[in-house]
Structure to design on (172 residues):
């Protein structure tokens, strides 16, 4: 069984479809993770205890999704000395803008990295965690480099296909 190195928290189980993207990114690189629901408002003691104990359990990065007021990432960052990566969730009438603004206004001394709103942000949070872990794992860094090369090759291939389509459609 792979060692759990990343903790993924969300304020509500309704955030799962978004936060699953972080888990998928971690799984692609063979990074062990745990995922749970914990609320800064509805279960503050549970949240504080989880964050405070994470490093002692081998967690090296925390990914936190929260919508609306988005206090979860800040509370976790206040209780842990680990890197905290926030994913603003588009779960409110303001479509995640409120969560983004709350996240990027952490007070000095309690840093929280923030990704984009929603699924793209969650995927990038997972990849950012991989990058953090790769700073001390040469094999993981190489897999990350290869994934980037594969992405670039896929873009070049799509461009070639586009050129063929343009020619077929008589637009070249």
């Amino acid at each position: 069984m792979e060692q759990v190195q990343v903790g993924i928290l969300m304020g509500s189980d309704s955030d799962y479809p978004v936060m699953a993207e972080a888990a998928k990114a971690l799984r692609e690189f063979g990074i062990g993770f745990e995922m749970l629901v914990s609320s800064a408002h509805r279960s503050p003691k549970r949240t504080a205890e989880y964050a405070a104990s994470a490093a002692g359990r081998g967690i090296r990065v925390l990914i936190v999704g929260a919508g609306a007021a988005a206090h979860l990432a800040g509370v976790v960052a206040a209780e842990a000395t680990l890197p905290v990566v926030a994913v603003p969730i588009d779960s409110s009438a303001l479509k995640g803008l409120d969560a983004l603004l709350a996240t990027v206004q952490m007070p000095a001394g309690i840093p929280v990295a923030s990704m984009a709103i929603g699924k793209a942000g969650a995927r990038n949070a997972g990849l950012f965690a991989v990058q953090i872990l790769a700073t001390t794992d040469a094999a993981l860094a190489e897999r990350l480099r290869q994934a980037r090369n594969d992405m670039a090759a896929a873009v070049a291939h799509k461009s070639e296909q586009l050129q063929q389509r343009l020619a077929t459609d008589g637009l070249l």
Remarks:
- The CA atoms of residues 49 and 166 lie 58 Å apart.
- The first helix runs from residue 16 to 28.
